[in-house]
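Slack export, channel: ligand-projects

TW: morning all. Re-posting the request from yesterday since it got buried. We need the structure predicted with the small molecule present, not the apo form. The ligand is adenosine-5'-triphosphate; the SMILES is in the block with the sequence. No rush, but it would help planning for next week.
GE: picking it up
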Amino acid sequence: MLRLEAMSCGYGGMRAVEALDLEVGAGEIVALVGANGAGKSSTLMAIAGHVELQGGRILFDGDDISSAAPMARVASGIALAPEGRRLFRDLSVRENLVVGGYVRDAGRQARNIETVLALFPRLAERFERPAGTLSGGEQQMVAIGRALMSEPRLMLIDEVSLGLMPKMVDVCYGAIRALRARGLGVLLVEQSTERAFAAADRVCVLESGRAVWRGSAAEARGNSAVIDAYLGVGRATADAAS
Amino acid sequence: MLQLELTIQGLINGSMYALMAVGLTLVYGLLRILHVAHAGLYTLGAYIAVLIANASGSLLLGAAVAIPAVGLAGMAVYRLLYEPILDRPPYVALIASIGLFIVMEEAYRLVFGPYGETFSTPYLAGRLAIGPIGAKGAEVLMVIAAFGLLTLLALLARRTRFGVAWRATVSDPAMARSFGVDTIKVRYVNFFVASGLAASAAILVAVLNNLVEPTMGSVPSYKTLAIIVLGGLGNVAGTLAASLALGVIEAFGTIYIGHLLDRDAIAFLFLVLVLMIRPQGLFAAK
Ligand SMILES: Nc1ncnc2c1ncn2[C@@H]1O[C@H](COP(=O)(O)OP(=O)(O)OP(=O)(O)O)[C@@H](O)[C@H]1O
Ligand SMILES: [Mg+2]
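GE: finished. pasting the full token output, ligand included:
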């Protein structure tokens, strides 16, 4: 469904990700892991069209979307729950969902809201509250729910568990598995390798903008020492550089 | 009784400030521009209304033409003045805006003369009274118009899909755009609404004073800037509250400290005092 071919992206003169090959299929969860600054968020943002593509191609269902505007990518079925969540903080939960579904016609809004509330019943209790007043876990639910409003086939989720209480993380991963069961593809970024290996089907490890390890989640669990070393090495170089 | 009358007078002036300041804070919230030329559009609304009213004999027609016409003029100001310089530092837009305001005032002076226009038949000059409390018809209409128009605006902003998209754009333009919100359309609508509200305030002031003059926007221009700072830049509810508060404080100040301080200086005394105590304004910005 999603296919990155030697994708490079970055910021002006600065390269964040170098020649990354990656595939995400329907009904599959792929986890991107890596140290701080490895290029995980940049990868998601480039797929969503927010970070400048500097080489290679992004294919979605075989179509080259490399130069499509962010909104066109949403319309074609790619939705993003970004780093830091970036909710519309003064808007209520309901209103955040309304904006999330803006590319779909208003008639489908009510049905899509039902879907989100069925996935996250807790949001029904917070429905008219400003999103900025919610707990971190609830905000993550809104971010995922808002992305779902556009009826995506591919979900990009950054920092699934960062800063959340363990119970909330379970709720979020429960929802992500439910989405997979419905045939969505999910590309997620996860700080906790333990969580990533438990939830994902496949794992890709980034270090300094390059893919340095990839395999199934089962293989990742078997090689966790190697992968932790990559993350650790990444950290050490980052520390040395700073 | 005096207190009650002063409060009412204050709320009348506050309503006028609110109609004008809301537009200013909306523009600031969306584009981070201090839209000084807003006051030039305000004056334009009064001129269009008085000229059409005098030519046709109908104030209603004058208002019905002036309000949308000034809305369109506001959109033109965005397109021609602000859009080309949006990626420059904010003071560039501020200077451009002040420049446009001066040009507009001079243009009114050149085209319509320095002495101003009056309505050939005064409108709404009668006094409405409930017991001992009374106000001019135009003053009552000012309060009704402010309340009605701003309530309508709030309803549109909360209840309609476009209104929600508008507020999302204020909150995070890049995110809103990525979800498919046409943020350029939001800007145009924003300028149309802001400018239309300013025009409606100006028409009522013109009727109240039976005078439209080139510089009628000067005092409101700096007072409404003070108001939106007090209200917490970009904060609509705060701006409304600050408008009414300033109206009432001016009304009382004119009576109690008017011998020390000019009425128009009271706004600034108030601004300075508030900013000394609460530098973020009465109501913190979002
Ligand atoms: N807006 C930006 N402008 C310039 N450089 C950026 C920007 N955002 C990220 N970078 C740089 O791009 C590189 C990759 O950053 P990215 O945010 O993709 O990493 P990450 O893997 O998501 O890290 P983290 O775990 O800290 O979120 C880093 O070197 C970072 O400094
Ligand atoms: Mg990141």
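GE: first-pass observations. Chain B touches chain A at residues 161, 164-165, 167-168, 171-172, 174-181, 286 (CB under 8 Å). The mean pLDDT of chain B is 92.
TW: perfect, thank you
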